Amino acid sequence: MTILLAGMATFAFTTVLTIAGVGAAFILIPVFLYLGVDLRTAMGTALLLNAVSMAAACVRFVRARLVDFPTAVPILAVAVPLAPLGAYTSRYLPVVTLKWLFVGFLLSAGTLVLEVVGGILSGSLALLSDAVHVLLDLLSLLPRSRRCGMMQTSGASHEVK
């Protein structure tokens, strides 16, 4: 059941967010965590899914001549060699530290979105939507009373798969 839910969430978020021009990893990680996937596995899986979908989208953008190579190349020159270093380093950081780093990223990204969208669409529902999005991502990282494995329902235990 977890795989089915993860697959449905991945399809929905990847489709919508690729159309919007962003990767879905930032929302898939909290979704996978909520479904009981280990943090490091959630990160790796979400980033792989992100890389595949973004590669396909990137090909279309390049063919349509919508990529600003003078901006993209220097960023890639730094990001490509440093990404494996980040992945390697994350293996040695405590899960709590990784979660707080993720929270920091979400707050930073959310603030940036609020500034950009707020400046363009001041007073619109976009601000509320972005604020709720960031709040839900943060809430998904909080410790849950229900842990993976066994779920309590009406006093009976049921195995969660």
Short structural summary:
The protein has helices spanning 2-19, 25-34, 39-63, 69-90, 95-120, 125-141, and strands at 150-153, 156-159. It has 161 residues and is mainly alpha-helical.
Instruction: Give the topology string: H per helix, E per strand.
Output: HHHHHHEE
Compute the CA-based radius of gyration: 18 Å
Helical amount: over 70%
Give the number of helices. 6
Query: Could you tell me the number of beta strands?
Result: 2
Please state the average pLDDT score. 76
Count of discrete structural domains: 2
Pick out the low-confidence regions.
Answer: 145-161
Report how far the terminal alpha carbons are from each other: 6 Å
Shape: globular
Query: Strand sequence of the main sheet, in spatial order?
Result: 1-2
Major β-sheet, in short?
Answer: 2 strands, antiparallel
Structural class: mainly alpha
Strand content: under 5%
Please provide a written account of the structure.
This protein has helices at 2-19, 25-34, 39-63, 69-90, 95-120, 125-141; strands at residues 150-153, 156-159. The chain has 161 residues and is mostly helical. It has 2 domains: 1-92, no CATH class; 93-150. It has a two-stranded antiparallel sheet with strand order 1-2. It is globular and about 40 Å long. The termini are close together.
